[in-house]
Amino acid sequence: MRPLHPVSPLVAVVGPTGTGKSELALRIADEFHGEVVNCDSLQLYRYFDIGTAKLPLEERRGIPHHLLDILDPDETFSAGEFARRARATLREIASRGKLPVVVGGTGFYLRALLEGLFAGPERDEALRERLIVRERRRPGSLHKLLGRFDPGSLQRIHERDVQKTIRALEVCLAARHPMSQMFAGGREPLEGFRVLKLGLDPPRQDLYRRLDDRCKYMFEHGLLEEVQSILARGFAASGKPFESVGYKQALQLLRGELTLNEAIESAQRNTRRYAKRQWTWFRKERELQWLSGFGAEEATQAIAVKKVSDFLRYN
Question: Is the pLDDT of residue 185 over 70?
């Protein structure tokens, strides 16, 4: 008998920045009649192309891409909002008999999509403003405060991620319970899909060299002009995407706070650190199958295609 509620296949391609996730996702989508769903928090934003390594339209092989360029630079977007939008997109793709291929390096967004988030309290703008003022007066104080209220969240939120720290404190203070406990207690996982998760894991030093080269290339081929163009559109430099590696250094360079070499070196250093944090995050991702190579390599793609083929055969 057929199941009352059929389950659709879903493939996720994840890994650190610069590992070739987009290239592998394209190969899988091309091979198995798929459509790509972005899971990179920065590629959601319009105009932020060079610094996010967003795949140009002409390189997408005619394969539909979803959840790219859906936000203006001054808009905010949460993991919960991403999960809602992405789930609707997945169902729409599956309803047409296509294979959704989720690709990106924002691990928290992927987890929100697949496992769901807790139903936390709504945003409290007054409380947020007080927390922001406190952080401005004493940088790092909110992260220390979070350690008192919610040690569990402290372990998974980086000390420089002020936005996530504020949200965790907001939940603790409004709900009077640690966010980590609430997160573990009430989530709604994605239903109607069976998931294959593939992770790219090339040699670390090889990736670091590629990242260094990519950072330098971005600064020398249009990143500064892209930032100036965004600002010329009337968007403030305080927008969320400007906090990301590369764009932050580009702003500092334009303000005269860094030289070109200093900006490149800072971006390279912080990109390597970001890649390391992504590796650490995805190492904890359950049932993720690692591929020891870059996504553009034929050998890596062949292994991935075999895994997807086997996965679909038993759907």
Answer: no
